[in-house]
Design a protein that fits this description.
alpha/beta; 3 domains; single chain; disordered C terminus; Rossmann fold; seven-stranded mixed β-sheet; 646 residues; five-stranded parallel β-sheet
Length: 646
C-alpha cells in the first residue's frame, strides 16, 4: 500500500490535503530524509528543521506559477522530495542523480540554484522586479536561515527592497535560538493580532485617512500614526525592530514546527502588499533525536545507522588524517608558540579543522559568520597591528571575497595567510563547491605568494614558511581528503620560490602541483616503460615559479607538461607558458588541468575521469604528443627481401 508521500504525483495536490493529512505528510517526508541520508550521506539536520515550513508553503502557494528561492539549498531536501523528486531521492549526490543543492537544470520547481549562502533575498527581489516589469502577479518567496542571515548580501537586499517596496515574502528560518515559553506566548499573541485582517484593514484605513485629511501635512498625522504602529510592534517584539527599520512588515515569532500556526499565519500574510517577513523558530534535526541533541554533528553527514545514529566507519587508511586536521594541528602548535597568531573563519570552524582550538584560544580563534569579505578585511586590520592572521576558508567560498583580497590586503602588502581548504574536486557537493579557480584568481594579484603541498608533511613546512612570511599576502591551497605523510622531517627543505626535482629525464618533463605530483609519478613510470626518459618536478610554488628549473629542462626535452587540479585557464600551466614567452623559449608544451566547463557531482575519481585527468588519460594524452622513442626505432629490424634463385 502506498504511503501518502508516495501517492502525491504533483506538488499542487498538497493544496487539497487537510491538516491531519499534512501532518502525516510531514512525518513521512522527515522519515524519507533520514532513510536516504543514512545511506548516501548529505545535509540532514538543516533539512529536518524545514519540513513543516515546506509543507505550509506548498499548501499556500503553487510553484508552477509562484517563485521560491531557498538559501544554500541544504535546507531544501523536503522541497525536493515534495516537488516530484521523491522516487529519485535515493540517488542523492550520485553522478547523474539528485543534487545536494537547488539547480535550475534539475527541476522546473528549482527557480534559482545556489550552493553558497545569503543569496536568497537578493535573487528573489530580482524576480519581483522582473515580475512587475512584465506586469504579472505571482508571489515571490525567499526562505533564508541556517546562518545565512549573517551574510552581508542578505542585508543589502533587505535594505534595497525597503526602498523599492516590492511585494515579497521572506521566511526567516531561525534555527539558532530556542523559544522562550513566556516571550513566545506574548509574541504569538502579537503575531496573530498583527496578521489579522481587522488590524491590517484598520492600519491601512487610518493611514489612508491621515494621507487625505486636509490638516494631515501640517500636523504630521500620517507620520505620527505610522510611528505608533511601529512602536507598538517594536515594544512587544524586539526582533521586529531591525526589519521594520529597513522597511519590512514583520510577523513573528512563530513556532516553525507547529503546522496549524504556520498554515494560519502564511495564509494571513500572503495577500498583504509590500515586503513581508515571517520569523519562524525551528530546531535543526527536528524529529531525529540524535540530530536534535547534536545538530552540528549531524549537519552534513556520511552514511550512518538510523537506529543508533552511529556513523558507518570507512575502511582504515592506516595513519592517514585529513589535510584539514593537519592544518588544525600545525596551527595549534603555532598558536602555542606565538600569542600573535590569530585565525579567522567564515562559519566553517569544523570544516576547516579549527573547532578544537576555539576553547583553548577563545580570543584568537574567530568565527565571523557567513561573511567571507569581512573575514578578509578584518584579517587585514589585524595584520596592521603586528599580529599574524591566518584565514581558513574553503577555496570555493574565498571567491566571494576577491575584492577584499585585492583592495584591502594585496595593495597594502599586508601579511595575511590564506589557507584554502577543499581545493580541487570535492565529490558529491558538485560544481558550486569545487575549488578549481583559486590558482587563477589568486595568481593574477600582485604581491601574492601561492604554495601547493603534495602531502601533509609539506603542508606543515609551508605553514612554517607562511608564519615567518611578512612581505605580503600568502596562500596555501590543499584538497579535501586524507594524507599519510605527516612528519615535517620527511619533507625536503622548503626554500622560498624553489621547486623540488623528484626525478630527472631528457624526453619529457612533468611539472605538477599538489595531488597531481603523485599522478605525475605514476605517469612517469608508464612513460619510462615505453622508453621515454621522464623528469618529474614538484613545483611547490605557483607564484613565484621556479624559473631556473623551468629553463633547465627546456634544453633538450621533447615535451613540457603541466599538471594541476585547477581550471586550465590562467592557472599553474598558464604561468609556465608566460615564463617561456617572457624568456623567448620555444618548446612543445601540454597543459593538463580541469576543462573549461562545470563538472557535475560524483565521486572524485568520476570527476577526474570526466575531466580527462585520470592517470591513464593523462598518459594517453601525453603519448599523442610524443614521437616514437629513439630506443624503439633502433630495436626495429629491417627485413631484407629474399634473393630469387638463379
Amino acid at each position: 500500500m502506498k504511503t501518502l508521500l508516495e501517492s502525491i504525483s504533483q506538488p499542487q495536490e498538497i493544496q487539497n490535503l487537510n491538516l491531519q493529512e499534512l501532518t502525516q505528510l510531514a512525518k513521512e517526508c522527515r522519515q524519507r530524509i533520514i532513510e536516504v541520508t543514512s545511506q548516501r550521506g548529505g545535509h540532514l539536520a538543516s533539512s529536518l528543521g524545514t519540513v513543516e515550513i515546506t509543507v505550509a508553503l506548498l499548501k499556500n502557494f503553487d510553484f508552477r506559477f509562484d517563485r521560491i528561492v531557498w538559501d544554500v539549498g541544504h535546507q531544501a531536501y523536503p522541497y525536493k522530495i515534495l516537488t516530484d523528486r521523491n522516487e529519485k531521492f535515493d540517488t542523492l549526490g550520485k553522478a547523474g542523480g539528485i543534487k545536494k543543492f537547488l539547480s535550475r537544470d534539475e527541476s522546473n520547481f528549482d527557480h534559482f540554484g545556489a550552493g553558497h549562502a545569503s543569496t536568497s533575498i537578493s535573487a528573489a527581489l530580482g524576480m519581483a522586479v522582473g515580475r512587475d516589469i512584465q506586469q504579472k502577479n505571482h508571489r515571490v518567496i525567499a526562505v533564508i536561515g541556517d546562518g545565512a542571515m549573517t551574510g552581508g548580501l542578505a542585508f543589502e537586499a533587505l535594505n534595497h527592497n525597503g526602498s523599492l517596496d516590492k511585494n515579497m515574502l521572506v521566511i526567516y528560518n531561525d534555527n539558532g535560538i530556542s523559544i522562550d515559553p513566556n516571550v513566545g506566548a506574548i509574541s504569538k499573541l502579537l503575531t496573530r493580532f498583527a496578521s489579522s485582517r481587522f488590524y491590517n484593514s484598520f492600519r491601512e484605513e487610518t493611514l489612508e485617512f491621515a494621507e487625505k485629511a486636509p490638516f494631515s501635512e501640517r500636523l504630521g498625522l500620517r507620520t505620527t500614526l505610522q510611528k505608533l504602529h511601529d512602536s507598538a510592534k517594536s515594544f512587544f517584539s524586539p526582533p521586529s525592530m531591525l526589519f521594520e527599520q529597513l522597511g519590512w512588515r514583520y510577523f513573528g515569532t512563530v513556532d516553525g514546527h507547529n503546522l496549524p500556526e504556520l498554515l494560519d499565519l502564511i495564509d494571513r500574510v500572503k495577500e498583504l502588499d509590500g515586503p513581508i517577513v515571517v520569523h519562524a523558530i525551528t530546531q535543526k534535526g527536528k524529529g531525529y533525536a540524535f540530530a536534535e541533541e547534536d545538530a552540528h554533528k549531524y549537519h552534513g553527514v556520511s552514511p550512518f545507522e538510523p537506529e543508533d545514529g552511529k556513523f558507518i566507519k570507512k575502511k582504515s587508511s592506516g595513519n592517514a588524517i585529513s589535510f584539514s586536521q593537519v592544518f588544525g594541528k600545525k596551527l595549534g602548535e603555532l598558536m602555542v608558540r606565538d600569542e600573535q597568531v590569530v585565525v579567522l573563519t567564515a562559519a566553517m570552524m569544523s570544516g576547516t579543522g579549527i573547532l578544537e582550538l576555539q576553547p583553548k584560544f577563545p580570543d584568537r580563534v574567530l568565527d565571523v559568520g557567513i561573511a567571507e569579505g569581512h573575514a578578509v578585511t578584518c584579517s587585514a586590520g589585524i595584520a596592521t597591528t603586528g599580529n599574524k592572521p591566518f584565514v581558513a576558508i574553503y577555496s570555493t567560498f574565498l571567491q566571494r571575497a576577491l575584492d577584499h583580497i585585492i583592495h584591502d590586503v594585496a595593495i597594502q602588502k599586508l601579511p595575511v595567510r590564506f589557507m584554502l581548504d577543499r581545493a580541487g574536486f570535492v565529490g558529491a557537493d558538485g560544481p558550486t563547491h569545487h575549488g578549481l579557480y583559486d590558482l587563477t584568481y589568486l595568481r593574477m594579484i600582485p604581491n601574492m605568494t601561492i604554495m601547493v603541498p603534495r602531502n601533509g608533511a609539506e603542508l606543515c613546512s609551508m605553514m612554517e614558511l607562511a608564519y615567518n612570511h611578512e612581505s605580503g599576502p600568502l596562500a596555501i591551497r590543499y584538497p579535501r581528503g586524507n594524507t599519510a605523510n605527516l612528519d615535517e622531517r620527511n619533507s625536503p627543505p622548503l626554500e622560498f620560490g624553489k621547486a623540488q626535482i623528484l626525478r630527472k629525464g631528457k624526453d619529457v618533463a612533468l611539472f605538477a602541483v599538489g595531488l597531481m605530483v603523485d599522478a605525475a609519478e605514476q605517469v612517469a613510470d608508464l612513460l619510462e616503460k615505453n622508453g621515454y626518459s621522464t623528469a618529474v618536478i614538484n613545483a611547490r610554488f605557483v607564484k613565484p615559479l621556479d624559473e631556473d628549473v623551468i629553463v633547465q629542462f627546456c634544453g633538450e626535452i621533447q615535451l613540457l607538461v603541466s599538471l594541476e587540479e585547477n581550471t586550465i585557464h590562467g592557472g599553474f600551466g598558464s604561468g609556465i607558458l608566460e615564463t617561456l614567452s617572457n624568456k623567448g623559449i620555444c618548446v612543445p608544451t601540454l597543459q593538463i588541468g580541469a576543462p573549461d566547463r562545470f563538472i557535475a557531482q560524483g565521486t572524485p575519481d568520476e570527476q577526474l575521469t570526466a575531466s580527462e585527468l585520470s592517470t591513464e588519460q593523462i598518459y594517453s594524452r601525453i603519448l599523442e604528443r610524443l614521437p616514437v622513442p629513439v630506443k624503439k626505432i633502433r630495436k626495429k629490424r629491417t627485413v631484407q627481401p629474399k634473393k630469387l634463385a638463379s
